[in-house]
Model the fold of this input.
Amino acid sequence: MTHPVSPRVVLVGAMGAGKTTVAELLATSWGVAARDTDHDVEAAAGKPISEIFVDDGEQHFRALERAAVATALAEHDGVLALGGGAVLAEETRTLLADHAVVFLRVGLSDAVKRVGLGVGRPLLLGNVRSRIKTLLDERTAVYEEVATHVVDTDGRTPAEVAAEIEELL
Ligand code: S3P
Done:
């Protein structure tokens, strides 16, 4: 790692991959802090993501997200989970190039089961299954591009996923 401070690992992947839960498990196991860029964006905006989308639009959300990711990559030395769409920004992909990045892979069925009705996730409004299918189709290649490691999550508990990441790193 070329940075003085750097996350031990950055978790990327679609909604329902388990990024936030796995980040917390890994952080507990390693005795470090877990951080989630969705929470940083909500703190910066002073409101939940669903309200940012409605009040200010997705583009504004993405600008806040790019800034939150850049800050977290520069100052967080624990485990970092990115929002599912963060890797769509070229600026973010460039920053990720010198970090350990794990892509938590999830298939359509497991993702749908895990997000439930998609409450609080504005991109899933409407038909959750068809929205997730579109997002997986559009983004899987990007997750693979930024990842240094890929871990399958289908049919596995967050604890099993976290244990595999610990073996890998
Ligand atoms: C999004 C994923 C969400 C959140 C926002 C947009 C996306 O994060 O950042 O609703 O574009 O995939 P999670 O992947 O943590 O649910």
Q: What stands out?
A: The CA atoms of residues 101 and 129 lie 27 Å apart.
